[in-house]
Amino acid sequence: MSQESSRDPRAVLAREKFFSLRPQPLERWLWRQGVPQSVERVFWLHWQAGQRSGDWCSAIPLKAVAAECSLDVSTVTRAYQILAGLGLIRRQDPGRDPERPFQQAVAITEVRVPRELVQELDRYPNRVRPAKSVNLASAASVAPSTIAALPPAPTREPVTDPFAGLSGRERMRALGGLLARMSPRERLQYDEAVRTHASHIAFDPESKLTPDQRGQLLQLLAVMGRQPTAPTPAALAPVRTGASDPPRPRQLSVLELARLRKALQLIAGHTDVEELLRQVVWSVEEGALRRFNTLHAVRIALKKIREGLWTRPNRMPPQWARPLHRPTGPRTSNAAVPEPCRAA
Question: Which fold has domain 9-123?
């Protein structure tokens, strides 16, 4: 790339700035629905935030959405209604903010794919991934006799570590001696080669390194730049031991926590909802209700609380706690600001 093209603002945008990736089938489905552009802005903002969080849920305040999309609060509210009618989002009201009882907590928005698009998803073509091996079309046209007559491919000599026989301290001392003899320009090239896994650097004409030392550095870069070989299926298979594997930790999602908090507010009334929520979450994730699936365990806990049979779990640690609020959004500062009730 020339110096002029590297300074081109288009090249800077394409090379260094962030992109907004949008699935083409979903984007074109939105175009066919004829929704306003403001509605698309709101949807793609929550799509991007939910993709970063990993569970397709985001908790962005209404005013933060309006500021990010350059829209009014009333326009964002109408956009939520249109998106919910199309089946593109599902919003869960978590109830009152526990820290500010006169304000409403930030609603949790889950982006969804409409059923109509899911049914016709197979009609859209998949992305073509470039082949990393020999071209199969050209290889199929070659006769077997011609393939047998081809000379064998040259074998690449294995690259050995120049400091293989040294201990860790001796290795660091030898490498430090080589780096100390390098010029600032050579040292910058060496650091960049280590970062990019390159196997060659250009030495200065008046370099202080001897030819043997240069060969050692190039050999070391070649060793560090080698890509690891793909593991075999036997290596990828989990090792089976006599004892059973420990169960994987289970955590309620943000949407499930919001539903549980709202249900406890309706059942418990004026009691300490946060303490009840803490006890139920521990029992579902680590306690006696862990052996049931998540929905069944939550329903069992709510039924016991409704009938007045719920007691604090016996094995629950006194100081057990985990973050029950996980706001996600384009900026952390925006996601932590509560909203008044009139803006909901």
Answer: Arc Repressor Mutant, subunit A (1.10.10)
